[in-house]
Amino acid sequence: MPIKDVFLPLVGQPRGPALVAIEKCVAVAADLGARITALALEEDVFERPRVMLPDDRDSARASLEASDMQRLLNAFTNAASRANVRAQSRSGKLPADQIRTILAEHARFSDLTLVPVKPHDSRMEALVEALLFESGRPLLLCPEHRADELRPEIENVMIAWDHSARAARAVGDALPVLQAATSVRVLTVAEGKTDAVVQSGTALVDHLREHGVFASFETTKGGGSSTGKVLGSWANSHGIDAIVMGAYHHSRLNEIVWGGVTKTVIGQPPCWVMISH
């Protein structure tokens, strides 16, 4: 199924990198030929009413116009206009504990959710967690710290293949992106090319060929580094635009605990990362 409807949650502060990331996310939607819907939410904080003098009104109005939520929406609207993409936006205020749930609910009505990601930010990781495990939809993570370098045209794709069900799900979700790419490389991090590793990678390449995706398969050694760091380093050294991967977690006492690879990649994505569970 082609990607025709994408979702962009807008939360947090409108810092420079965040605004650049919004621009790049809108450009991806335009490249996909998709409609993009932005939802900007901010925490509804009760403030005690106060008497306002006439001289205070102009400054209060200016403060409202310059709110973080409005600046994020303005950045989105301007980017959508420049990209000439079909776009719509909504905004609202909610209690802090409801924001992630509402964003995940809205994400269910899209083919893909675009998520600007601040590096090593616990609140952002919690939002990614909610979107990933409560929406049932794949995410495309945009690393804010590298937004200036990112290309909206996703041409060179690497599939992080670990033979698992979650990786298979990610490949299925990413098929429209893989079919549009000019280069697809399947990569397994393993200390040796065992028969099982080769057979699994070869089988995936064969499957992709049936969908018009002509991929190559290769392995790389960990060399003592974490798999997440190996994937990031390999992507950077091979000019990869996007990584496709499955998300790993396990539940303990009703808490989500990220697996090491997922934690590393979500904490600081090396490029666009399309991730599914």
From TrEMBL:
InterPro entries: UspA. Pfam families: Usp (PF00582). SUPFAM superfamilies: Adenine nucleotide alpha hydrolases-like. Transmembrane segments: none annotated. Residues 155-275 form the UspA domain. It comes from the Bacteria. Gene3D superfamilies: 3.40.50.12370. Belongs to the universal stress protein A family. This is Universal stress protein. It comes from Bradyrhizobium agreste.
